Amino acid sequence: METLLKNDTFISSLDWKRKGSLVPVYNKNIFTIDTGGDHENCIVILHGYLSSSYDYHKVIPELSKNNRVIIHDLIGFGLSDKLENKYFTIIDQSDYVLELWDILGLNNFTLIAHNYGNLITQEILARKNHGTTNIEIKNILFCNGSVPVNHTNYLDKHTFYTDEDSKKMVSMLTSFGIYKKIMREFFYDESKITEEELYEMWTLLEYNNGREIINFIYNYVRERKIFWNRWTSALKDTTVPIDLVWGKEQDLTDDCMINLKGAKNTPYNIYWIEKSGHFPMLESPKEWILFVLKGQLINT
Amino acid sequence: MTAENWKSSGTFYSILNKNIFVIDEGTSKDVLVILHGYPTSSFDYIKVLPELSKHYRVIIHDHLGFGFSDKPDSFTYSLIDQADFALQLWHKMGLKEVTILAHDYGTSVAKEILARKNHNLIPIKIKRIYLCNSSMRLEHLHLRNMDQLLKDKKLGRYIARLTSNGFRKIKNKLSKNNLNPEIHSEYDLKKVWDNLNSDEGKKEIHLLSNFINERYTFWHRWTEALKESKIPIKIVWEKSDPVAIKEIAIVLATENINDNLEWLENSRHYSILDSPKYWMKLVFKINDIKMF
Q: What is the pLDDT of residues B267-291, one digit of tens each?
């Protein structure tokens, strides 16, 4: 765990690229890191919006000591293929994710999801509940991120948050200067993320013209409304154990929690990470790992 | 035949804890599954069923929220959900290989199923797909404006309540627009409208009409599905259909048109309700029908 101290863990995006390989899925190449090979327990990670697998560079070395860890860059992000000028939805992402897992022969694993990845996870749960996929998931850990907004409860407050969110995201893409400023706002302690890390994240975002086409993925906000019932029912009806690992210092958390509490039948644990913002895996990697392993242990 | 007779000629399947109304006619090994249009039900097919069931085992279900199937309890059911329900129903009925026939709303469900088939995510074999624009010209006679209103987040729920006179309007429009007057008695429009009204169907219609948003959201997914299809697809379309024409023009404008796509222009506006005989000739090449 000592290696988790700042600067020791820094890795450039070029070195990051060497850690994984491109897996062809349908007509696209997906950058996939598959590490910690021969362990029986398996952890699969879905990253968030405007991010990439690089978010997890501080935690993967530790996790892979006792687990096979698989993480890939979602289509349109990081080192995976970016898009042509076409809309790409959560439903499309889920198709690619399921096919990738099938190609890698993954089944019965711990799934960790963050932000945009939470929505993909919910879509996959919906398909599981509806009997249209055979994938087995041992347990799920949701990190900070949005749970679908109830459109019948669509108050000014929610509209405000969504508007603020989209404004932030659009302006984030204009230049590195604004990107790093807004990214730092997502952290409780800004000093936890270094300039060089932010620069590598920006590089991955820009890779292969990614910044140009990112708006074609943003319609997930619309999908969140369309699939409100589908996705909250998915959480309600699933038999897969769900826990939350949550950075405590974040807006919108209340909203997400209310939705989840209302939706989930079976008891679940919430692991709060104090003094941590939207990216607990970057801001408080030690605590994050502890909770993830705890969640995995409880459910096996 | 009245709507009640129709009900007794079908059965109910429980799919994901919801009752789905299913018509299953014919003994052929060739299975034709039908995905009906918006905002009607399996009842649309009453005139073509006797002849179709000689050539196929015909299976029609009412989508969730339509006809005799359960009405959703104030929730939005998406086209993606409808695709899941259809797949689960066909699975439960033990169907291994099917031909799909779909009308307007149903074509979106069919395209979602095709997208998953192209992505190799579902086991069912699909022999051929027929996509038709509207089951009746109702949609662009009356409901096109209606959709716009119902789609409106705030207005929608009130509009739905206000349209108790909607039935009269539809009837008037149908008679004004050169449609066979017989259909009023035979099709039993009133029953269909009552159905829409029943089980708080009226309240929910604005939630179901959310599909217009989905058509935009999944535009690329579904046109891609058509372009990549390895399954032969016949698209029956009307040049004068103001809804479908844009969609078709865009697909036609793209460079590499899939060899599996066949375009059939329905220039005489044949439909399953007012000209079933000609419609079947056009779509299924079924000739020499003595129907009436």
A: 776 778 778 888 888 888 876 555 4
Task: Give the angle subtended at the CA of B230 by the CAs of B32 and B284, to the nearest 5°.
Answer: 35
Helices (H), chain B: 3-8, 49-55, 79-92, 104-118, 138, 144-151, 156-162, 166-176, 182-183, 189-197, 201-208, 211-217, 219-228, 244-253, 276-284
For β-strands A21-25 and B18-25, DSSP reports them as: unpaired
**Spatial distance between the Cα atoms of A253 and A275, rounded to a whole number of angstroms:** 14
Residue A190 forms contact with B (CB below 8 Å)? no
CB-side neighbour CA atoms (13 Å) of A191: 2
Q: Which residues contact A70 (CB under 8 A, 6 or more apart)?
A: A32, A33, A34, A35, A42, A43, A44, A45, A104, A106, A109
- The answer to whether A44 faces chain B, any CB pair under 8 Å, is no
Average pLDDT of chain A, as a whole number: 84
Q: Whole-angstrom Cα distance, residue A76 to residue B220? A: 15
Instruction: Retrieve residue A107's tokens.
Output: 């089944």
Q: Categorise residue A288: left if φ over 0, alpha if ψ from -120 to 50, beta otherwise.
A: alpha
Of B108, B121, B58, which Cα lies nearest the Cα of B81? B108
Structure tokens that stand for B133 in this block:
């624009």
Q: What is the largest CA-CA distance in chain A?
A: 51
Helix (H, G, I), strand (E, B) or coil at B239: coil
Asked if A230 is an interface residue toward chain B (Cβ–Cβ < 8 A), one would say: yes
Report the 10 Å Cβ neighbour count for B127.
13
Partners of A227 on chain B (C-beta within 8 Å) are 78, 80
User: Rounded to a whole number, what is the distance in Å from the CA of A238 to chain B's nearest CA?
Assistant: 12
Locate B275 and state its tokens.
């000209």
Which amino acid is located at B187 in the chain? Answer: Y
ipTM over cut 0.95: no
Residues of A in contact with B119 (CB under 8 A): 26, 95, 99
Residue B182's pLDDT band (boundaries 50, 70, 90)? very low
pLDDT value at B243 more than 90: no
Return the ∠ at Cα B215 (arms to B213 and B220), rounded to 5°. Answer: 125
In degrees and rounded to multiples of 5, residue B239 shows phi and psi of: -60, -30
Residue given tokens 């009245």 in the structure block: B2
Q: Give the number of other Cβ atoms within 10 Å of residue B62's Cβ.
A: 23
pTM of the model as a whole? 0.82
Question: Which pairing describes strands A242-247 and B233-237: parallel, antiparallel, or unpaired?
Answer: unpaired
Please state, as a whole number, how many other Cβ atoms lie within 10 Å of the Cβ of residue A25.
Answer: 24
Q: B219-228 and B104-118 helices cross at what angle (nearest 10)?
A: 60
A92 in B contact zone (CB under 8 Å): yes
